[in-house]
Design a protein that fits this description.
The structure holds two protein chains of two kinds. The mean pLDDT of chain A is 86. Chain A is elongated and about 95 Å long. Chain A is mostly helical. Chain A contains 15 helices and four strands. By secondary structure, chain B is an alpha/beta fold. Chain B has two domains: 228 residues, Rossmann fold; 68 residues, 2-Layer Sandwich (Alpha-Beta Plaits), CATH 3.30.70. Chain B is 38% helix and 28% strand. Chain B has a six-stranded mixed sheet, with helices on both faces. In chain B, α4 packs parallel to α6 and α5 packs antiparallel against α6. In chain B, 42% of the residues are buried. The N terminus of chain B is likely disordered. The chains are: A mainly alpha, B alpha/beta. Chains A and B meet through α1 and α9 of A and α2, α3 and α4 of B.
């Protein structure tokens, strides 16, 4: 059993020396994810506000102006332009200068006064589905509210009133939602990429071949390569999480120690994946391309951007094979929902199993490796 | 299998009809040889003829497609693990870690072989002493010159006191002084009973080996001591001998000499011509012929063939045979 891991200590020692010697490269590897986090954290706001709106107010009297004020006050619409004709209204939307067009008919006030039911046309650019969805919801709600106000005259309360309360992220702050997921993606930079490169570099130099002529065993070699990067990955995680907590002020509702503990199996999977890539790639360029191939599913099928529940069946199945999906569940669970070990142990276990599986495959590939000149 | 068992008492390497195919390409075909303990075995051949493949098969990096081989009495097919403990290997590109210092490289390889720290320390001191690496211990391997890289690589390969060392083109790209020093070192180690398996392109290095073998397009076509090879009938056919013709005008003299029917082949070496001639060749008539053309001949004297002559003759013969077979 001890024999299976032969050479582990020596490889670990050497790998630690490499890391120490190439300090600048490591420094940038660690800093890059933080820069990305700053860009994405400040740059992306998933809350939709101030949609550019064009208005054709054919009525122009007080009632119509009141309606427009209410739309403006919702903070959802920014009235960018008033136009005079239907043609102009359409052009503004087609040109992309406005996402929403509102047309108030000439008889709007008259119909309200005579209680005949007035209609307002709302044109919405459907090319961005989240903007369109929000615009529909808010305009309908304002219309409904306006109608009720007029129908109930004044004193009476609403018969049914919905009081929504957002749990865990009461202000709907984007960073709170975005950054815990981003953590999982950013970690891949210092795990999958670094391990893949460190082994492929040895292939390029010919030192890997040299190692195979020594009694070192594949498992010893691979674990010796993996462990130093596990330490680095863990350090990076602490860096990212502190950054998220203290720069972006994302509150951590759960236990940070549990987050640290459960990040280990995720780091392990990502590192093993890097090792598996290195068993296939012969140059650093190939390794880079393969590693990018693994990053895409981590972004798109992990629930980081698109909720897994709404994915088509096939992709949903696929998402069960994406390690980031489990880890995103863990980070969001602990950071946002205050989840504990009882809620998340299955995800951690799944990650651990995946990691062992990948590492064993990689070790077998190295074992059977026929090295050519 | 009888050869294999005999290897237990004597030979460092026994290869019996080993072959290796890559797809349809036969990289090594039916190669057999035997290397005795303590020998410096020179393995020669043109690029791409299968030298490195043979080393890889003997060190367990590549499985054999056919045949049997034993190294230090161990079967490379079934006991590759144990073989690796007993051998050292230095590849042509001196597989060192350029961003590690000399002593870190040594320490790493020592630990890979599982040397306990007191023994590692002792061995490192011995190697540093032997290879003269002392002044460079804290220098990064990447900053060493070719000669020092090669000494370090050799040091790394022999930390664990292997009885057999494979050196794949150890002197490629090394200056002549460093080459000479390496060979002095090899002889010293060989005197202590270490066996060397060395590939090289340099004929002067081949001449230094106790035992040489020549592989040509996947087949072994010569195997023996340098002296034995020089006496091969293919190299020195019955009724012929070699002469050296010294003259200041070698190029013109060669052109004229080739007109003589008794001259089988000839080539220029500096200020003289090396020629294979039939025994009935008459020195005086050649002298006269050249003199008639205004060329003075300083000396004509008998010559023993060099290993280069040997390999040129053998290569030429096998090429003609192969062409005849394919025609």
């Amino acid at each position: 059993m001890r024999d299976m891991f032969r050479g582990f200590g020596a490889v670990f020692y050497k790998e630690a020396l490499h890391v120490r010697r190439d300090f600048t490269a490591m420094f940038f590897a660690l800093i890059m994810p933080l820069l990305q986090m700053v860009l994405l954290g400040f740059g992306i706001d998933t809350n939709i506000r101030q949609i550019n709106t064009v208005v054709l107010n054919a009525d122009g009297r007080q009632e119509s102006r009141e309606l427009l004020d209410r739309l403006k006050n919702s903070d959802m619409f920014h009235i960018e332009k008033y136009v005079q004709t239907d043609q102009q209204l359409n052009d503004e939307i087609i040109a992309g200068r406005a996402r929403v067009g509102i047309k108030i008919p000439v008889d709007y006030s008259d119909r309200l006064i005579h209680q005949m039911g007035a209609q307002v046309l709302v044109l919405i650019d459907g090319s961005d589905s989240s903007v369109a969805g929000q615009a529909i919801n808010v305009t309908t709600a304002i219309g409904l509210d306006e109608s009720l106000r007029r129908a109930l005259v004044s004193s009476n309360n609403f018969a049914v009133e919905m009081r929504p309360k957002l749990l865990f992220n009461p202000d709907s702050r984007s960073p709170n939602f975005f950054l815990p997921g981003l953590t999982a993606i950013l970690l891949l930079n210092v795990t999958t990429f670094l391990t893949a490169f460190s082994i492929v570099r040895e292939k390029e130099r010919g030192t890997l071949e040299q190692l195979f002529v020594t009694p070192v065993r594949p498992m010893g070699l691979l674990l010796g390569k993996l462990l130093p990067y596990l330490v680095i990955g863990f350090f990076e995680l602490c860096l990212i999480v502190s950054f998220m907590r203290f720069v972006f002020r994302v509150p951590i509702h759960g236990n940070p120690l549990l987050l640290a503990l459960f990040s280990l199996p995720y780091l392990f999977v990502s590192l093993s994946l890097g090792i598996l890539i290195s068993s296939k790639a012969n140059t650093q360029l190939e390794a880079m391309q393969l590693a990018f191939l693994t990053i895409l599913p981590s972004i798109f099928f992990s629930g980081y951007i698109f909720p897994r529940e709404t994915m088509p069946f096939v992709f949903r199945i696929l998402s069960y094979f994406v390690p980031a999906a489990y880890f995103i569940n863990i980070t969001r669970g602990i950071i946002l929902r205050g989840a504990g070990i009882t809620h998340l142990w299955v995800d951690a276990l799944a990650l651990l199993a995946m990691g062992i599986f990948l590492l064993v495959i990689a070790a077998r590939r190295f074992q059977n490796k026929v090295i050519m000149a | 299998m009888s050869e294999i068992s005999a290897a237990k008492n004597g030979a460092a390497i026994v290869a019996e009809r080993i072959s290796r195919k890559f797809g349809h390409v036969q990289a090594v075909c039916d190669v057999s040889f035997r290397v005795e303990k303590g020998e410096i075995f020179g393995f020669l051949g043109p690029n791409g003829s299968g030298k490195t493949t043979v080393i890889k098969m003997l060190t367990g990096l590549l499985p054999l497609s056919a045949g049997n081989a034993s190294v230090e009495g161990l079967d490379v097919r079934t006991e590759a693990e144990a073989v690796r403990e007993r051998i050292g290997y230095m590849s042509q590109n001196f597989s060192l870690y350029n961003d590690l210092t000399v002593s870190e490289n040594l320490t790493f390889y020592g630990r890979i072989y599982g040397l306990p720290s007191d023994r590692l320390k002792k061995r490192m001191n011995e190697i540093i002493e032997l290879n003269g690496l002392g002044p460079y211990l804290t220098r990064l391997a990447g900053q060493l010159s070719g000669g020092w890289k090669q000494r370090l690589a050799l040091g790394c390969a022999m930390l664990h006191e292997p009885k057999l060392l494979f050196l794949d083109e150890p002197t490629a790209g090394i200056d002549p002084v460093a080459r000479r020093q390496l060979w002095d070192l090899l002889f010293e180690l060989s005197a202590h009973g270490i066996t060397f398996f060395v590939t090289t392109h340099y004929m002067d290095e081949a001449e230094r080996c106790n035992h040489v073998a020549y592989i040509y397009y996947s087949k072994l076509i010569a195997d023996g001591t340098p002296a034995e090879l020089k006496r091969l009938p293919d190299v020195q056919p019955q009724g012929t001998h070699r002469v050296e013709i010294a003259t200041p005008e070698v190029t013109r003299a060669l052109r004229i000499a080739r007109g003589i029917p008794e001259l089988r082949s000839a080539t220029i070496f500096g200020e003289s011509i090396h020629a294979l001639v039939e025994d009935k060749f008459d020195q005086q008539s050649l002298r006269a012929l050249l003199q008639k053309n205004g060329i003075t001949v300083t000396e004509i004297r008998p010559l023993t063939p060099s290993l280069e002559d040997v390999f040129v003759e053998l290569t030429y013969k096998h090429k003609t045979l192969a062409e005849a077979a394919s025609a």
